[in-house]
Each structure stands twice: as structure tokens, then as C-alpha cells.
Amino acid sequence: MSSEAAAWFRRRTLPSTDDAAAVAARLRGRQVSVVLPARNEESTIGQIVTTIREQLVDEIPLVHEIIVVDSRSTDATTIRAGSSGAIVHRVPRHGRDGGKGEALQAGLSRMTGDVGVFLDSDVRAFDPAYVVRLVDALISDPSLVLVKAFYDRPSDQGGGGRVTELVARPLLRRLAPELSAVVQPLAGETAFVRGPMMRLPFVSGYGVEIGMLLQVLAAHGLDAIGQTDLGVREHSHQDLAALARMAVQIQSAFALCTDDAPEPDDTRVTFRRDGEGAMEMRRERVPTWLLPPLTED
Ligand SMILES: O=c1ccn([C@@H]2O[C@H](COP(=O)(O)OP(=O)(O)O)[C@@H](O)[C@H]2O)c(=O)[nH]1
Ligand SMILES: O=C(O)[C@@H](COP(=O)(O)O)O[C@H]1O[C@H](CO)[C@@H](O)[C@H](O)[C@H]1O
């Protein structure tokens, strides 16, 4: 790990509190928008929205609005989100499917708060302290633009974060070593300042998180990024084929967001046996692109 990354780790691994009243008092008029991208999350979205609304809107006014961005769901996600008290914002269902990156940028365009919190919608046993701690860390220093969550990621596959460990971390070491002390570079849980984020491009699909880190680094420098401990996160896990496609998007995000990365290669090669048992090769495109900033300076 570079000495710059190690120094950042000491400076920008930020303490945070789960005392919502104390954090709300420190907002001094700033408003907080929670944005949840959701594609077919009917089994978890209702509980997450209800928990935030009851504890961080009604009981303690830390959160100003809860936005669920429907990312082309085909289940009851939007009904559950709306009936739980969220504002539901839909990405267009026509044209190229920009996936999670498109959903996050759509949520950014819809939010009215000064401070935003992105949360994944597939988290089980959601803890509202995620929001409190992320906001607390972000407002601890006016030079911060983005604060990433980190946590333990237990899973039945023997530990979560497979693309993080096998793809994102090695690429960070080689292409953006100053970010190699970010514990969970792909974490969906992120607090941010709205203004600067409006001026950055977003990467489509699952390249959005690593793209966000690289874009904030390039535009605002390493100390504009922080991280804070949320303890544990349990979420649903995709299969290996889905994560292989995610990996293609992660490496494309590096190509789109760093100067010296090789050209993006959005081709995924797979192998399978045909009807006679012979091995055949297949190519699949996993396109990843930049979504222009919402605000041009
Ligand atoms: O095209 C997509 C893919 C994912 N998501 C949301 O992004 C979050 C993280 O996605 P997922 O759980 O698929 O990623 P994983 O945690 O498995 O890496 C979840 O809230 C998804 O509903 C989305 O809004 N649009
Ligand atoms: O960290 C990872 O390797 C992937 C997959 O996690 P698992 O191997 O299913 O625990 O999950 C993250 O990556 C996605 C792409 O950036 C994010 O959208 C997810 O929020 C995050 O969970």
C-alpha cells in the first residue's frame, strides 16, 4: 500500500455516532435526502423505508426525504416503497438500460437536500444508524465531498465482496494506489454533498461506485473522500455469472475514469459445452458508459 494511502487511512477513517438527535442538531439547517436505488427489491424495500421514516423522519427529524428510484423493477418494489412513505422516482423504461449508475444519478437529480445518502435496497436487518453515521462523518469536515461505508460482510460464500477483493482492489493498487486504503470501495452506502456530485459524470451500471471514487479523487483530491465504520452488512448475493458481468463493468469504469487505464473492453467471453459435449466459446457485450454531469459549470 502506498504511504499516501496509509496516511489517508489515518486521516480520513472517520469516527461517527449513531446518536441521531446529536447529528440532527449539527445540521444547522442543511437537509438530508436518502436515495435508494431499487431493482426488484420488494422483499426488503418496505422495511428499510419504514424504518428510516419512523426513526429518522417522524421521531427524530434527521432526514428530509426518502426517495426510492425504481430501476425498471418488475415486482412490487414501487408499490411497497410508496406505501411505506417513500417518494418513488422512476428511471425511463425505454432506451439503453443504465442500471444502477442511471438510478443513482436519477435520484441525485430528484433530491432537494444539501446532503445525500445512497443506500442499497437489498440489505437485510437494515440499521438506521447507517444513515446517522454516514451523515455525521460527512458533516465533520467541510472539505469532504464523499464518505464511504465500510463493514464486515459475512456471507454463505465465506465472506462478501467477491468483486471487491478479486477485481476492484487489485485494479486500485495498480491504477489508483492512493485509493487502496478504502476498505469497501464498492460499498453502495455513501454520503455525499449534492453540489459537487451534480458536476461529476456517473458511470452506468455497477461501475458507478468505483467511478464515483475515481471522479471525486480527480476533481477534488484524496482528502475530499472519507470512510466510516457501519459494523456489519448483510445483503443478497448474486451468482458468479452476474458478478463476472459486474467485473467487466468495474474494469470499464477504470478505463473511463483514469488516464492511464487500457481502453475499455466490454466483452465477456464465456465457455460452455454444446449438445454433443464439445466446448464452445461465446462472447457477450456488457456495455458501460459515462452519464454526463447533471450540471455543467
Ligand atoms: O440495474 C440495477 C442493479 C441494481 N440496482 C440496485 O442497486 C443495489 C445493489 O445492487 P445488487 O444488490 O444487485 O448488487 P450487489 O450488492 O449484489 O453487488 C440494490 O439496491 C439494487 O436494487 C439498481 O437499482 N439497478
Ligand atoms: O463488493 C462486491 O464485490 C459486490 C458483490 O458482493 P458479494 O460478493 O455478493 O458480497 O457488491 C458491491 O458491488 C456493487 C458494484 O459496485 C455495488 O453496487 C454493491 O452495492 C456492493 O454490494
Topology:
Elements: H1 3-12, E1 13-14, H2 20-26, E2 32-38, H3 45-59, E3 65-70, H4 77-83, E4 87-90, H5 99-110, E5 115-118, E6 123-124, H6 129-138, E7 146-152, H7 162-175, E8 190-193, H8 194-198, E9 202-203, H9 208-220, E10 225-232, E11 234-235, H10 240-257, E12 267-273, E13 279-285, E14 290-291
Parallel strand pairs: 1-10, 2-3, 2-5, 3-4, 7-10
Antiparallel strand pairs: 5-8, 6-11, 7-8, 9-14, 12-13
Helix pairs in contact: 7-10, 9-10
This protein binds uridine-5'-diphosphate and the ligand O=C(O)[C@@H](COP(=O)(O)O)O[C@H]1O[C@H](CO)[C@@H](O)[C@H](O)[C@H]1O.
Under CATH, the topology can be stated as Spore Coat Polysaccharide Biosynthesis Protein SpsA, Chain A
The strands making up the biggest β-sheet line up spatially as 1-10-7-8-5-2-3-4
Helix content: 25-40%
Q: Average pLDDT value?
A: 95
- Biggest pleated sheet: 8 strands, mixed
CATH class category label = Alpha Beta
Query: Can you identify the CATH superfamily?
Result: Spore Coat Polysaccharide Biosynthesis Protein SpsA, Chain A
The count of strands amounts to 14
The 3D shape can be described as: globular
Note poorly predicted spans: none
